[in-house]
């Protein structure tokens, strides 16, 4: 029993560490300029949405996140390659959110708000750097702090939800270990029969 408890504790710590590391990596990831999208190309988008795919994606972005449109329009003029990469990336995010909308409405709301705040915080930081007014900078700074506070709370909620998922998984593992221990003799007997009666001619 002591070995079983130690194993469960080890699995829990391992899964928790993996979860924390995953979130840390997520926060550190940065796209390299000009890096090609290996998953979705312009041709893929054409096959999925037709020749008018660009207008379809822009229309959806304007509906979901209008502040991003201005940035995209500037990027189209200065860096067309990156512009198309960003469009395909935003489309994938939209599709992912749409799927979540029906599978888990509460998580969808959290994820959507999280992405909105991410965009808003970046825009506020850009506005702060461009501002020449001290009063204007102070106002933007206060707004950014409010934005980051909510963003932090949402990030912690995502982490908390992940921990709950891991705890549930641990409970399932514990139940499985308990069941297999109780059925030890039967499981060994089944495996014994399999190994002793193995006949290549009888396989599918």
Q: Could you tell me how far the N terminus lies from the C terminus, measured between alpha carbons in angstroms?
A: 40 Å
**Fraction of helical residues:** over 70%
Order of helices and strands: HHHHHHHH
Average pLDDT reading: 78
Structural class by secondary-structure content? mainly alpha
What general outline do the C-alpha atoms trace?
elongated
Uncertain segments are 23-38
Q: Calculate Rg over CA atoms.
A: 25 Å
Number of helices: 8
- Percent strand equals under 5%
Q: Summarize the main sheet.
A: none
Number of strands: 0
Looking at this protein, list some descriptive labels.
204 residues; single chain; mainly alpha; 8 helices
Q: How is this fold's topology laid out?
A:
Blueprint: H1 2-28, H2 42-49, H3 53-64, H4 67-78, H5 80-103, H6 105-130, H7 134-182, H8 184-196
Helix pairs in contact: 1-7, 3-5, 4-5, 5-6, 6-7
Note down, in words, how this protein is organized.
This protein has 204 residues and is an all-alpha fold. Among the domains are: 38-103, no CATH class; 109-172. The chain contains eight helices and no strands. The longest helix has 49 residues, at 134-182. The chain starts with a helix and ends in an 8-residue tail after the last helix.
Summarize this structure briefly.
This protein is mainly α and 204 residues long.
